[in-house]
Amino acid sequence: MAISLKASGEGIPELAHEASDIFIWCITQNPDCCKQWDMVYLDNLEASIVILKRLNEQWKEPSLKQSFLEALTETLKSLKRKNEKAMAEGDKSGDQALYREADKHCKVLLGRVSRGWGCAKATVFLIVAFGVGAAFLTPTTVESLDWNRLSEVINIQKFV
């Protein structure tokens, strides 16, 4: 994993492409690799930007494992904090543009991660809500509704 990270930042497009694909494969297979990436991030900023770009390009959430998404979310939050801290310190490191670019990619990925699970949670909530609602509507309750009266009310409201 470490070799692929270093190779991603070498500036040779073909090598960076292959190395970043290997690195992404590593972190998707073993969520602990995300923690390792977090530890070496500041020493490999340019390579990490290549990885973040590739993650954005290759994003396919349905095929990703829950454990990886959780580890990636925590790692991205940590990387974002590191970027913000470096940008707040001013131009001490001379890498402000790199930190801004990395921060931009982290924000996009965090949006994708949170949006996907938010949608899934909302869908599950709606299904449960409809199930509970259907459980309280017994057949006698449905039969006792005066459908003719309901249609009259609707027609009256259309003309008002």
Keywords, separated by commas or semicolons:
single chain, about 160 residues, mainly alpha, about 80% helix
Strand content: under 5%
Rg value:
25 Å
The mean pLDDT is 80
**Separation, N- and C-terminal Cα atoms:** 70 Å
Overview of the structural elements:
The chain has 160 residues and is mainly alpha-helical. Helix content is 81%, strand content 0%. The chain has eight helices and no strands. The chain has helices spanning 2-8, 13-29, 32-40, 45-57, 66-88, 96-136, 139-144, 147-159. Helix 1 runs antiparallel to helix 2, helix 2 crosses helix 4 (45-57) and helix 5 (66-88) crosses helix 6 (96-136). The radius of gyration is 25 Å and the shape is elongated. The mean pLDDT is 80.
Question: What topology emerges from the helices and strands here?
Answer:
Elements: H1 2-8, H2 13-29, H3 32-40, H4 45-57, H5 66-88, H6 96-136, H7 139-144, H8 147-159
Summary of the model, kept short:
With 160 residues, the protein is mainly alpha-helical. It has helices spanning 2-8, 13-29, 32-40, 45-57, 66-88, 96-136, 139-144, 147-159.
